[in-house]
Design brief:
The chain has 739 residues and is an alpha/beta fold. It contains 26 helices and 24 strands. Helix content is 36%, strand content 14%. Helix 2 crosses helix 3, helix 5 crosses helix 6 and helix 24 crosses helix 25. 42% of the residues are buried.
Length: 739
Amino acid sequence: MKLRDYQANILSQVATATTNDLVQLDTGAGKTPVEAALAKRAERCIVLAHRNLLISQISEKLAAAGVFHGVIGTEHTRRRCMIDQRRGGYQNHIIADEGATVFAASVQSVLARHHRHRLPADPSLPWLLIVDEAHHAIKDNMWGKLAEIFQNARIVGFTATPARADGQSLSIEKEGLFERLVQADTLKNDSVQTLIEKGCLSPFRVWSIPSYIDDLALRIGANGDYTVPSLEVALSKSQIVGDAVTEYRRLADGKRAVAMCVSIKNAEKAAEEFRAAGIPAAHISSKMGAIEIARRVDAFRAREILVLCNVDMVGEGFDLPGIEALIMLRKTASLTAYRQWIGRALRPMEGKSYAVIIDHVGNVVRHGLPDDHIAWSLDFPASPRFLVPRCPCSECRIWYEAWRASCPNCGAQNLLLLKGTPPGDYYLSIEKLSGELIESARRQAARNAEQDKLQREVVLPAAAGCWVQSGTVGLLCRDLANRMVEYLDGVEDQSMVNVFLETTPCNRNNFGSRNSRFTTCGPSGQKIYSSVQKMAAITLIEADSATQSGKADLIFADPPFDLPGDVLAEILQRYDAPHLVLIATMRQILAFAPLSPWAFSFDFVLDGVMPKQSKSRQQPNYTHQTGAYFKKPEAKSAFDRYSRQRSDTFSAEPGYWPTIFHAPRQNVKAHGLAKNQAVITDILGSFTVRSVIDPFAGSGTTGMAAYDLGLDCLMIEKDSAHVATIKKLLRFVGFGATA
C-alpha cells in the first residue's frame, strides 16, 4: 500500500516524534492508510474506534498494509472484519488475540475487558494508541479512561475536524489528550480545494432549497448542537420531507444518496416517502442490530437501495465511496458535524463527475461551502473563512460566485446584480460586484483573518503558572517574563507583540507556546538583571568558526528528541574532545552508537527520572560513578542486549569519550536533565575541564551552568539568529544594548 505525498508527510512528522499528536486530515483524504502504516512501524499498537463499522474499515486497511492483527470487539465485529478483508481482495490477516501485538479495537470493548481482567494487551507496556475520530477524546470520557489505563502509552489521534462540539480545547493543558496538531505541509491552506485538484476528493455542486424553518424556535443543547425536540417541532411545520423526494428526482435521480435526518421517527418517515415515490430507500439507526445495519449498508453498496436515511450513523469515519449525493434534512449548529457529513459525499469513485449536495435546512449558509478554508487549532474554536461571496440561484437553487451575471447551471440571471438585493431569504451585504472587486475582497478577507488571529492569540498573564516551550529564546523568556509582561501591559496595540514573535528567528526558535501565542512564567521579576548579566558573559559564536576550532575539554550534546541517531553521529564527528555528555532517547542511543567512530564506557544511564530522588525533590549528588539506573524493565533489557553485542568496546581507554546517556520516557512528559540547571552544573562539575562545547544550544542552561563553574562555553548555532533575537528582545523591553 503506497501512501500519497501528503500522507507520507504526515507519517514522517508523527513517526519521528514522541508527543501525543492530533492529526488533521480532511474526510476522504485517507486517514486510515496512515493509521495502518503507523501501526506497522510500531512494536505494540492498538487502533481504536467507537463504532463497529469503523473497526471493520480499520481492519481492512491493516490487512492492505500486510499487518496481522487481533480484534478486540464482539464476535460479529470479528466476522465482519474477515468478510470485508475478503471483499477487498486480501487474505485473512486476523490472528488470535494471545499472539497479537497489533489490535483493531472498540474503545468500549477494551474498557469492558479490562474491567473483567480479560484484556489481551498488558497496559503497563509502552503501547502506541491510535484513536480514530479523535475529536471526541478528552480526559472526562471513555477515551480519558483509556489513557488512565495505558499510562505508559503514546496517543496519536486522527480526525478531519479537530474541534469539540462544545467549542472547548482538545489540548492536554485544557482537559484534552493532545500536545500538538499535525497537518500535511501542502494542505495547511485550502486543503479541500487542493485535494480536489489532486483527484483525491470529488468536485461538488451545492443546491440550497428554501426551507422556511423558524430558527428562533431552535434550542442549543449541552453538546453545542440543536436539540432533537426543538428540531422535530420546527420540521413538523415545514414540507421538507416532501420536498426532498421532489428535489432528489430533479437533481440526483438514480444516484445513491444519503439523507441526514433529525430522529429515528423522521428517518423512517423519509424512507417511507421515498419508497412511496418508487425510489428504493431504507433507514438505519442505533436501535437496529449490527447484522441488520450491515445488511442494509451492503444493499446500498450493491445499488439495491438508492436512498439511505440515517440518524448519526453515516457520519464520522463511515467509508463508502459509493455515495454520490448528500441530502441534508437536519439543521446543525455544529461545524464539526457539518464537515463530517459533507465529507461522505466527496469521496471519489469511477464514473462520478461531481458530488450532489442538496441542502434543505440552510446549513451551507451557516457553515460555508465544502471547500472554504478553515484554520484548525487545538486551543480555539474553528470557523470557516468566507473569501468569495456566493449566493443561491433564484431558479435552480445551486450556489455559485455572486459576481457572476448568470447562473452557470441553468443560465438564470443573477438577481443580486440586477436589483442589488439577494434572492430568496438569503442576505448578502453586497450592492455591486465585479471580478476585480471579488479579488480585492479575497485579499482583504485574508488580511482580516490574519489580524483576527493576532488579536485572538495575544495573551498577557499577570501571574505565574503559565508555561513556555523549550528553546534558547524560549527559556530566556522564563527569566524575562514578569518584567516583559509589566511593560507589555502598557502597550496600546498588543498585536504588535505577536508580529515580532512571528518573525523568522523567533518562529524558528520556538518562542512562546506551540501555537506561537506569547506565554510566560516565572515567580521573580527581580531575577532579570542577574540573568541578563550571565547571558552577556556567555560566548556565542557562529557554526563555521566553531567547526574550524571545534576543540574543547568536554562536549555537552542535548539534541532534539526526534533527531535521528545517524544524523546525531554525523554532527558530533565535527568536534574534538576527550569527554562527551550526551542527553538522548534510548532510540537515539541505539542508532547513534554503532555509527560513531568512538568506543564507549558508560558512567551511568538514566531512564525516565533521576535516580534516588527523594520526595522532598532534593537533587541527587551527581559525581563520577559507575552503574546503570532504569525506570522501565524493557529499557534495561534493550540496554543489556546492546551491551552483550558490543562488549568488546565497553572500556575506558585514553582518547575515548566517557559517555553519560539520559533516556527520557517515551512520551517525554517528565522533565529531563536539560531543564534543570542545578543538575547540569553538578554533572559538568564532576569533570576536570576548562572548556565546554554545546553543539545544539537547545536549552540555554548549559551556558548558565558553565558560567557558574567558571568554564569557557561555546554554544554552537547555525547562524547568529539567537544573538540578534536576544538583543532585539532585550531592547524591546527597555534594556537597551545590555546584551
